[in-house]
Amino acid sequence: MSLREEMVTVSIVIPVFNEEENLEALRDRLLATLEPRDETFEIIFINDGSSDRSEEIIRSFNEEDRRVKLVSFSRNFGHQTAVTCGLDFASGKAVVVMDADLQDPPELLPRLLERWREGYEVVYAVRCERKENVFKRSAYKLFYWLLNKVSYLDIPLDSGDFSLLDHRVVDVLRAMPERNRFVRGLRTWAGFRQVGVEYERSARFAGESKYDFAKLLSLAFDGLVSYSYVPLRLVSNVGLLVSLTALAYMIYLLTARLLGDATIQGWTSTVVIMLFLGGVQLLSLGVIGEYVGRIFDEVKQRPSYVVRDVLGLETGDTAKPRRID
Ligand code: UDP
Ligand code: MG
Fold first, then answer.
1. Which of 245, 230, 231 is nearest to 277 (CA)?
2. CATH class of the domain defined by 7-212+304-311
3. CB-ligand 1 contact for 78 (6 Å cutoff)
4. pTM reported for the whole predicted model
C-alpha cells in the first residue's frame, strides 16, 4: 500500500503558544465537529515553546486519543514558523490551518471541506466581522489596504491563515525554501483554484493575544517586504525627486549670485537641506537594510525551526522533516 492510501483525509494544524486555557474547549469543539463525519483526521498541535501547561495538556489529549499529535519546538520560533512546521508534518489529503484561541471556529470546517470536495485546492476563511478593539481593527484594515496597494500578489482582503489546503498545495509550500514565512502570501503565490468562505471572527476564547505590537509590526513588514518591490522603488523615486529639487535650487542660487546678489546668507537653508538629506538617506538605508537583512537570513540556510520532541508522528530529521513519497 502506498503512503497516499494510508493518508488520513484531514490534518488539522494548530500552532500553540501558551494557550492552556483554550486547548480543552478547542479539542472538544473539534471532535464534536469531526467525529460525526466520515473523514479520517489527525490534529497536530505545534507547541511553539510554550512556558505554561500547554504541552502537558496536549500530551494528555494524545493519551486519550491517538489522533491528537504533538510537535514541540526547542524554543519559541513564531506563529508563521509553527504553521510551516505543521504543514511539514501533516499527512492529510487536505490540511486545515487554524489558531488555538478559538477565534477560528471549528464549526466552519464542514463548509471548508465542502468547497474542497467541489474541487477547490485552497479554501480560505474570510472574516466578515471582527470582535477586536478599534485600534487593532483599524491597524489590520490599514495593513491589508497597504499590502494590496503595493504587493505584486492579490492577497485576498481580510483572509488570515485560517484555511484549508489540498495536499498538492501543501507540497508546493513545503518545497519553498524561504525562512521568512508569510504563509498567506505563499499560499496566494502557489495559485491553484482558490475560494473564500465568509465567517464571523470571534473574540479570543481565553488569554491574551500572543502577538504584541512589535510581533505584529514585524509580520506586517514581512508581508510588505517579501511581496513587494515598491519600498525599493519608492526610495529611488524620492532620490530622483530630491536630486531634481537640488538642481533647481542650484540654478536659482547661481543665477542670484551671477546677477550680483552677494550678501552672505543661507544658514537656515544650509541646515534645512543638510537635515533633510540626512533624513532621506537614513530612511533609504533602512529600507534597503530590510531587504539585505532578509537576504542575510536566507543565505545562512539555517533550518526554520528546531524540533525538541514529537508525539504520534514519525520523523528522522528533527530539524526539517520531509515526507518520503
Ligand atoms: N502563536 C504561536 N507562536 C507565537 C505567537 C502565537 O504559535 O509566537 C499562536 C497562538 O498560540 C495562536 C495563534 O498563533 O494559536 C495566533 O496567535 P494570537 O491569537 O495571539 O494572534 P491574534 O489572533 O491576536 O492575531
Ligand atoms: Mg487570536
1. 245
2. alpha beta
3. yes
4. 0.75
